[in-house]
Amino acid sequence: APSALAVKGPVASLEQDTLYGEQQQNEILIIDDDVELVAYLKESLERQSYYVSIALSAERGLRFFYESKPDLILLDLKLPDQSGMEVLNQIIGKAKKERIPIIIISAEQSKEIVMEAYALGVMDFVTKPMDMDLFIVLIGNRFEMKREWQEAIIIDELTGAFNRKHFNQTIKQLISDFRRTSRIFSLALIDLDHFKKVNDTYGHLSGDEVLQAFALHVQESIRVEDVFCRFGGEEFALFLPNTDAASAQVVIRRIQETFSAKEFKGKNEAFHVTFSCGISEVTKSENEADKLVEEADQALYASKHAGRNQTQL
Ligand code: GH3
Ligand code: MG
Ligand code: MG
Ligand code: MG
């Protein structure tokens, strides 16, 4: 049945709101020629809200792997055109690099084959016929593992803010949203004032604690849709969706006031830390990421130059 070779699952919940830079991460590619089993798997997995793509041959499986970027792969070892092991050899490198779990589903279970598959780097080897309840729990675990990994690679370890990688994804996403829907946003670049002096006077450990306290303070002061990132060192960036520059300035000035009132414990005396900020707003003429950052950076420089602890546009 050639028309059944490619069956793309429904994309029912695409409208569901996601965080910027985060995509829907639950697409499963099944490469298996057992039509009956595949239909059963597809039905069972779609009931769990996964999107399921099906390839009934190695050739189509390989094509889907490259084209549709699945998040998890179920691979049969016996396929009509190539062996599953051959397919595995072709996709394992990229799958490992992109952390796409591969689960072998096979009627064959010789020790040699299982060992070979594990040695190549497959996550699991499941023998057919599988118990669907157990199989679904296994798949759930693999997706959770993947989700944790994806979260970990965009979080700055010291402060818990998003990292530079997520900053880059977010600015791209927001700019493309703006081009499509004219939904504005502001970018605030933040740099702690005289931070070298904090380190020199109280030590790097205290400096780290200030960075952590600062990040926590900002996180507690912003809305859920705002995206707070550590840009590097003692520099941070805050995206404020649906906010013009003037409103963003009000938000940051409020944070500036509350944060500068915070007391840090030095050796003998308490000390305070301030920060400077520069804000830019996406507009029709200035909708390039580089320009947006550059503009905020210039405003930040102006804030520093004007005596620090300020927020300029
Ligand atoms: P300005 O007000 O002009 O911004 O002065 P500054 O001292 O903050 O600026 P400068 O760029 O000269 O110094 C930044 C300091 O931040 C130097 C660097 O050692 C320190 N720093 C960067 N990352 C970290 C970190 O993760 N932990 C600690 N403790 N210090 C850091
Ligand atoms: Mg087969
Ligand atoms: Mg700096
Ligand atoms: Mg600084």
UniProtKB/TrEMBL annotation:
A GO MF term: diguanylate cyclase activity
Keyword Magnesium: no
Residues with 4-aspartylphosphate modification: 76
Assigned keywords, A-Z: Phosphoprotein
GO cellular component, one term: plasma membrane
Domain Response regulatory: 27-143
Record-annotated GGDEF domain positions: 183-313
Single GO BP term: negative regulation of bacterial-type flagellum-dependent cell motility
UniProt keyword 4Fe-4S present: no
Protein name: Diguanylate cyclase
Gene source species: Paenibacillus donghaensis
Shown residues within the full chain: 89 to 401 of 545
